[in-house]
Specification:
Layout lengths: L7 E4 L5 H12 L3 E6 L11 E4 L5 H15 L4 E4 L14 H11 L1 H17 L2 E6 L12 H21 L4 E8 L21 H16 L4 H13 L6 E4 L1 H12 L2 H11 L5
Parallel strand pairs: 1-2, 1-4, 2-3, 4-5, 5-6, 6-7
Helix pairs in contact: 1-7, 2-4, 3-5
GO molecular function: oxidoreductase activity
InterPro entries: KR_dom, NAD(P)-bd_dom_sf, SDR_fam, SDR_oxidoreductase
Pfam family, one: adh_short
Length: about 270
Amino acid sequence: MTTTKPGIALVTGASTGIGRATAKALQQAGFRVFGTSRRPNAENVDGITMLPCDVTDEESVAELINTVLDEAGRIDLLVNNAGIGLLGAAEDSSTAQAQALFDVNVFGVLRVTHAVLPIMRRQGSGRIVNLSSVLGFIPAPYSALYASTKHAIEGYSESLDHELRSFGIRVVLVEPAYTRTSFEENLTRPDRALDIYASARAGVGEVMRKAIETGDAPEVVAKTVVQAATVAVPRRRYAAGKMARRISFLRRLVPESAFDKALRKQNKLPV
């Protein structure tokens, strides 16, 4: 397998979980890695330079990119990992809460990507890896808004890849399933939770908790990111881990009605 030469990597949301594991894996693969954290005084760890950035703030993103350029002179790889979760029925959240979720998970990706693209075009090369999810291509009860952000990232990434290939830039997706991180603990809670959904919401939440406990380690996802970042001719998307590969396979081959029944059964919803 032919790979590209490691260079300068920028990983958003690198203070914990998948982002931290990815930053470490890229550093071990030979990249000089800059990671971001919402905390203004995040300490550098394992050779990774940590910088503050709020992906919902244009000025914060611009300052981040300028700092990386001042220190390294270029950006060869962008890993858009920063994001937040939300568990609840679609009707459980106000429009304002939905907008806040999209501001991080979708428009945050757009802000950082837009800031990096002129640099990569001048270089004539670059790779952008966007962290999606299996929820970017399957339905997810009680994750409608979160899944919508990942569906948006899938469409954005595929279209952007076509637009950028002539500049020597590729955009790829990494799609994890359940991963053993603090994701569930850090989930945003619905701001107007309705009693009518309480029982089903709790059931789905319990299924998620158990699945995360037995899910892939963040390092499994990080290994997939390194592969997507370094292979010379990347695929459009990479399933990260055994469960993600299995879900991707089933989604493509199992009849829709059967997949629907299995999904409802897994989430303890009436079939």
